[in-house]
Each structure stands twice: as structure tokens, then as C-alpha cells.
Amino acid sequence: MSEQELTTSELKQVRLDKLSELRESGIDPFGSRFERDCQAGIIHADFDNLEGTTVKIAGRIMSKRRHGKAGFANLQDLSGDIQLYFRKDDLAEGQYELFKKLDLGDILGVEGTVFRTQKGEISVHVHDFAFLSKSLNPLPEKWHGLKDVELRYRQRYVDLIVNPSVRQVFIKRSQIIKELRNYLDERGFLEVETPMMQPIPGGATARPFITHHNALDMKLYLRVAPELYLKRLLVGGLEKVYEINRNFRNEGISTKHNPEFTMLELYHAFADFQVMMDLTEDLISSVALKVNGSMQAEFEGRLLDFAPPWPRVTMLDAIAEHTGVDFRTIKSDQAARKAAEGLGLEVNPEGSRGDIINDVFEEFVEDKLIQPTFIYGHPVEVSPLAKRNSDDPQFTDRFELFIMQREIANAFSELNDPLDQRQRFLKQVERREGGDPEAHMMDEDYLNALEYGMPPAGGLGIGIDRLVMLMTNSPSIRDVILFPTLRKRD
């Protein structure tokens, strides 16, 4: 056992001994209901009106110091922290001795008078207090100095206790989602819920998680996207729908990827990808202004500007700008592969022109896109659910929004031709049979729905976690997911 482990073990034993002493003296270390009527942040904000009044507050003890027959402690609740002043002569018999035995992390209910100390510190002069929960594990003294940075994610409950800035990130995350809902609700969108377990995963090219339903004796998949179910609702006459919920993709983990993540998907009948582009721009800039009070936000040392309008660039023009290769003049698959190899890109010898264009974009353009930028006009090969462009059917009416080298949103004019959709699915099935585990499966029920007639529509998906990262200056997706997926520790 290391010295640090021994020290922690000894500290915990001291606390267990105190726990026994409390119980022996008739004090419940894990109290019950406490009716507080104020919070630390409110006392600071409204001190002029609260000075001299009696308040009841509750929270966790984060620091403590004694000076003879008096002592101070800092109590922390969700709103902030407040200094507590304990004076032996002003407490009931035995309570000052109880104060001396308090440990950092203990949760108290406190009643006292609001005042300002001689040094100007807004405080509560404690008249009475009660144990609400005894902390048995000592809090880390230097949380930021821990060598194992993953411990913050593994023990998020401790991270939230000792790092107020972390709590603020998740409070802001909640505000962002609330404002997204408000924006859509005010514009007549209906929030719906679609299956999380699906017999056929669809709506995105991704490898799914597989499970089994025992009673039905059938294989089910955690959804990779809600898209095909939401578009079934368009068929049914729900003209403007959205869902904010989890997607699951059995892929690698990085600072940008977590296997379980939150998406906003919405569909608007009688609209198209241009309407979705306008909506995306207005939605994100409006949320940024409401949540941050500004359309500018700092992220990893760069100042992002969400103020519209945002650049709108075709994929082919973006490639030409950053590589000098104009794929409009390259018509065959073989010539496309040769052009990509000339850029130093290793390509699939069977890759089509559309696949190559997408590969070149991902390799040479994505990391150049810092400020909010719409890239539109994706090849049909990588857009199996998007409507073809009427002027050039080798491309689709689709866009992706990039900010800080990250794809934040994906949208398109929805393919509502069931015959074309069947052919696209068949191409995906060929890819799947050729060894691509992320390709779409055939979904006969979805095709059946399209055959009843789906109105022309625009659809949009926004990655909530990545959006929160940008608006909270959080460099890793793990910083904005309360309990991210982590490798099992031995």
C-alpha cells in the first residue's frame, strides 16, 4: 500500500470513528428533510435586504478554521458559497464541540443571521445547525493536480463538488437544450419520441450496438439515428417534428466522439435544405446570444463569431480552394482516384468519383474550417437519404455545418422518391456485403411508408454535445457529458 493510500485509509478511519461517536451521542449523521429558505448566492446578491435577518441554508462544508472560542467555515451550495461564523457562546450546549469535529465534505443545515464581518466578508452567524450527511471519504486537496486526468470523468460526483466551473458547464448545457426547445416550440415544431431499440438500424452510416430481446427472441439494435422513424411521421401528417435524444454508435472514442451522444433531429414538411440552412444559422446564433449574452465565444484560444450570415461553399469549390484540384473537370472514377493519389492520399482502388471527392474533402479541407461554414453539394454515394440535385444528379441537396474543424450539423432535402430510395438502399446493401459494417440495411417498412407518399421536406441533425463544447470552451466531449464512456480499469 502506497503512502498516499495509507493516508487516505487513515483519514477515512478517523471519519468512521466520528460517525460512531455521533450515533452514540444520539445524533443522526444522515439527517432528513431540511426546509431551507435561502441560498448562498442569494445572500450575496441581496445582502442589503437580508442583512440582520435570519436565514436557513444547506450545503457542503468546503473549508474550516478555528480561533479559540470561535470558528469559520465555508458552505457551498449550487448557487455559490458563503462564510459561516460559529461562536461558542451563541450556540447550544455541545454544538461548538460538534463544530470542531466537522470534516470537509460534511453536509449541514444551518440557521443563522446574515451579517458582514469586520473584514467585509458577507457571512452567516450560525445559531443552530444539523448534520444532513456525514462525508466518509476525504475530498482531494489538489483535484487539478491529479496525474490521472480520467479520474475527473470516472468520479464526476467529486469533480462537481470541488470544481464549480464544471457545474457551470452542465448548467449551461441544460440552458442550451432548453433554448433549442423554446426556439422550435415557438415555430410550431412538435417534440416527439421514437424507438431507441430498432429491428433495423438506419438514418446514418454507422456501426450499431446489438442486443437481444428474450421474450420476442429477436435481435434489436440501439439506434444510430431517429431519422427514418421521424420521416415516417411526415408520411403520417405530422408536418414539423423534432426529437432531442440519445444515439448510439459502436465506434472509437476520442475528444470528439463518445459512443453514446445527444442529437437534435428535426423535419419540416414542404421545406428543403436551403430552408434548413437558414434555420440552422438562426437557431444556433439565437441560442448563443441567449445563453452567452453574445454571438462571440472563445474556444481553445480562438474567437468564434456566430453572427450571421455564415459562408456557404460547395464541397467542390472548397476542395478546389484548398488543393487546387477541380473535380468538375474530372468525370471518371479512375481519373478521380489518380487526382487523389497525386495529392498523396491513399485511396480505395474500387472507390467511385463521389467517394474520392468526399475522402479528399475530409483529408484536406475539414481542418481548415474554423468559423461557422456551410459546405453543401455532397456526392450521392455518401448521401443515401438525400434528394439528388436537379442540375447535377451525381450530387445531392445536402449540407454540413463545420465550426472549429468539427461537423456540428448535417441536413438535406429529404429523398421522398421510394424507387430511388430502394436503389440507394440496394447500393448500401452491396457495400455491406462487401465488408462495410457501417452501410445501411434494407428497410422495407420505411420504403412501404414512402410509397404512401412523403411530402418534400428538409431535415436537420445537430450534435448537441459538440455544440455545447463550442459554447462552453470545453476541449473534449468528455467535458460536456456527465458520465462519458470510459475504458474499464483493472
Essential attributes:
490 residues; alpha+beta; 34% helix; OB fold (Dihydrolipoamide Acetyltransferase, E2P); BirA Bifunctional Protein, domain 2; 24% strand
Report on this model:
With 490 residues, the chain is an alpha+beta fold. The protein has two domains: 3-139, OB fold (Dihydrolipoamide Acetyltransferase, E2P) (Beta Barrel), CATH 2.40.50.140; 162-311 and 371-479, 2-Layer Sandwich (BirA Bifunctional Protein, domain 2), CATH 3.30.930.10. Helix content is 34%, strand content 24%. The protein has an eight-stranded mixed sheet, sandwiched between helices.
Q: Could you give the distance between the termini?
A: 17 Å
Number of strands: 18
Helical stretch count?
15
- Which structural class fits the helix and strand makeup? alpha+beta
The CATH superfamily of the largest domain bears the name Bira Bifunctional Protein, Domain 2
Average pLDDT number: 94
Tally the structural domains: 2
Q: Quick one: biggest sheet?
A: 8 strands, mixed
Taking pLDDT < 50 over at least 5 consecutive residues as the criterion, the unreliable ranges are 143-147
**Which topology of the largest domain does CATH recognise?**
BirA Bifunctional Protein, domain 2
CATH-level-2 architecture of the largest domain: 2-Layer Sandwich
Give the neighbour order of strands across the main sheet.
6-10-11-18-17-16-15-14
> Compute the gyration radius: what is it?
29 Å
